[in-house]
Hints:
The structure holds two protein chains of two kinds. Chain A folds into two domains: 2-72, Beta-grasp domain (Ubiquitin-like (UB roll), Roll), CATH 3.10.20.30; 81-161, [2Fe-2S]-binding domain (DNA polymerase, domain 1, Orthogonal Bundle). Chain A is α+β, with helices and mostly antiparallel strands. Helices cover 36% and strands 9% of the residues of chain A. Chain B is built from 19 helices and 34 strands. In chain B, the strands form ten sheets. In chain B, strands 3-7-1-14-11-12-13 form a seven-stranded mixed sheet, sandwiched between helices.
Amino acid sequence: MRVNGVERSADVEPRVLLVDFLRSNLLLTGTHVGCDTTSCGACTVRMDGDPVKSCTVLAVQAEGREIKTVEGLANGAALAPIQVGFHEEHGLQCGFCTPGMMMVTSALLERNPNPTDDDIRWAISGNICRCTGYMNIVKAVKYAAQMQSEAAKAPEHAAVAGGGE
Amino acid sequence: MSSTMHMHGGIGESIKRKEDGRFLRGKGNFLDDIVLPNMLHMAILRSPYAHARIKSIDTAAASSKPGVIAVVTGELMAQHKLAWMPTMSGDTQAVLATDKVRFQGQEVAAVIAETKAQAEDALASIEVDYEVLPAIISPDGAKAKGAALIRDDKEGQTDNHIYHWESGDEGTTKAAFAKAHKVVRLHTFYPRCHPAPLETCGCIADVNPATGKTTIYMTSQAPHAIRTVFALVAGLSEQNIRIVSPDLGGGFGNKVPVYPGYVVATAASLLLGRPVKWIEDRTENLISTGFARDYHMTGDLAVDENGKMLALHVHLDSDNGAFFADAQPTKFKAGLFHIVTGSYDIPTAHITADGYYTNKAPGGVAYRCSFRVTEASYLIERLVTNAAIELGIDQAEFRKRNFIQPEQFPYHSATGWVYDSGDYPKAMDVALDKLGYAELKKDVEARRKKGEVTGIGIASFTEVVGAGPGADYDILGLRMFDSAELRVHPTGKALLRMGTKSQGQGHETTFAQIVAEELGIPAMDVSVEEGDTDTAPYGLGTYASRSTPVAGAATAMVARQLREKARKLAAHLLEAAEEDLVWERGKFYVKGSPERSKTIQEAAFAAYTNLPEGMQPGLEGVHYYDPPNMTYPFGTYAVVVDVDKGTGQVKVKRMVAVDDCGVRINPMIVEGQIHGGLAEGYGIAFMQLITFDDEGNCIGSNFMDYLIPGSWETPKFELGETTTPSPHHPIGAKGVGESPTVGSPAAYVNAVIDALSPYGITNIDMPVTSDKVWAALRSKGVTE
């Protein structure tokens, strides 16, 4: 599979979950495990662009797929707009749910560059946050949306605003 | 990366958080992210039964499974005198069961293997022969005639009663009730719930056989206290124990206690000479670690003919589970529940409490709460709203009539507290204004006439946080002070270390801001470190909203101490007398000649390069702060709900929260804390329930059964504030992380009860689910 743009391969038991493969084999520990039952979304990564809960995907199912994790969001020192949004709007506290939240909402912003509060709340309704009460997460996503739309108007900054993709 | 990097970051500035960067990049360092060379993995076998005698344990098959290094049982632990451990409430708790299992999920054996999967696989091969005993799942069951004796391990224990505890004055309370115009009673059950931080609990124990040094990476909110407990219990030399609490994915009280897994992993590492990692899965977390609440409460409020409160009587039965392992100051059996007179000037009160063993998980923790303050606040605020409804007085007016008035502070309560400060009418007025209360009430009346079910709930809570004066508050004898050590480097940058431990509260930013304010070094130039007992000064940890009241005070005090040394250095550099220097944040100047000045950075450099004769080099200090009193945050919360008569569904239309936590160091972080607490309060009021069937099976053992509020359910919050500084805290701060969880459940439920009051419904216990509301309405003949 390609993970954050790099080809990765390993022999694993059929039962190994994608999240365990990412964390244990590739040492990409930014993807977290919160519940084991697909309820909390802390393990969310993007597979071929779609957000998926990697605790409910077998590593072998990801063969040949394009996987993106939180470690792939920033372009070197330059944070992606979604990361900037979470920082500026205080969208994280303990930071445990944050990678999953950002993977879901970065996908949302690609489909829907100008989401309403309800669009955002619906998009993250499969991701639990115990710290923030969600209001600042909604604001963080709107901040990122604004950043992206401004970058689109000023093409010279598009590379940074697009998160280096 | 931050838009606020250029800001000084003193008190009152909403600078962006310094700790965000690593979390945004997926580079946090949570417990399960840590991998040590040669590390083994541990999995725990847990009891399927709530109450059963262990007849035999056969580990032979498991021991020969692939990758298995060792199987640990209670018998093995007993050989090292570690089958039992002391609890924070003066009881004992089984580490691995030897005689009986006393709750479902109790630790029975552990497998240590090369991989986590191998350890988990081998659990299935351990054969345990149980003789199942009747399970007790409530205090009523525990006191029933002929009830099974749960703690037959304890000498002299003949029933399931743990403690009896009282506060206040029985005689004067009885006398006041005798002449009351009216007595309003509320019997309510604050059910068991669980803090459920998104990261579960775990540890990596690493005993180095060559040096004898024991390093334990642990999800702990109180690493120093844990180190001392390990030294005392395991007989290890304390200088050889290092507890490292890495980044914590939330805590909310769940990460205060010592859990059996920590002890077993440490013993296993000691015996095997290799690091051992243990981390719970979600079910283990929910069924075995520190739960919260589980209080059955009856409150009686005596009122005179003018609607003035005369006296309060409360009795509660506490369900403590199989071991009395409440995480609380050791002297207080029911925590700080006796704050139950709340925001009201009630002349006399009497509180009685009895604790009982049941076949449920132990470890009543203060879930985003200062030791049972949440239960107390819920009871009084629910009782006050019920009384207002019964007396036909508006619930805001009834509260105002009985508030402790601003001029009564410091206020001596009927149960012995000395409230430091408050202005309750003001917080109420701000909330009512924000709500548009008068108009809203008219709207409610009009809609009720049309047959709609709608209501307003108010709660005006008072908390008591920041334990505490060490003479009264201790954990196993350790006084509940806290600490800050500050080192200013030659170039004027600083390192602050504290005895507390952030779990997401933003300590790396907030405490740097206190240094920025007091010593004038910009917050961005101050690193904050916590959680490593080899480097941080001794402290009792972060819970019960004590970090800012105690360690925050220590930070201000140590910064002031260094400022005084810096004054001497500046005087030396300026060749002026110390008393002629004026401090202005960040520099000293000569009185009358502001151009003759030296910055704090220049003074710091001089501390290492150009000292006055006889002065010790360096600019460092440490302060241990034992607070003179607790702090008393307060506020008024108001909720508006609509209830669907057809389905019983409750819709929270508005949630207004006015908090007074004294001086706010970083308003953005404070508001973030309030948002989070209001969401958790919503969860507790409407969703989060740990319950048990008659056989003691835990219902709520995963996130499909234990419902956590998501973005879709969680209401939007409207915040307001007043500021009444704490008179005894160096910077006037009071602590805020728990106010919203303490205050909001009653506000939410009061709104539902207000909505249902026209139908004669006076109580629904939490969580207020649609089926309960539906049934209550149907019981009064209300249909669509």
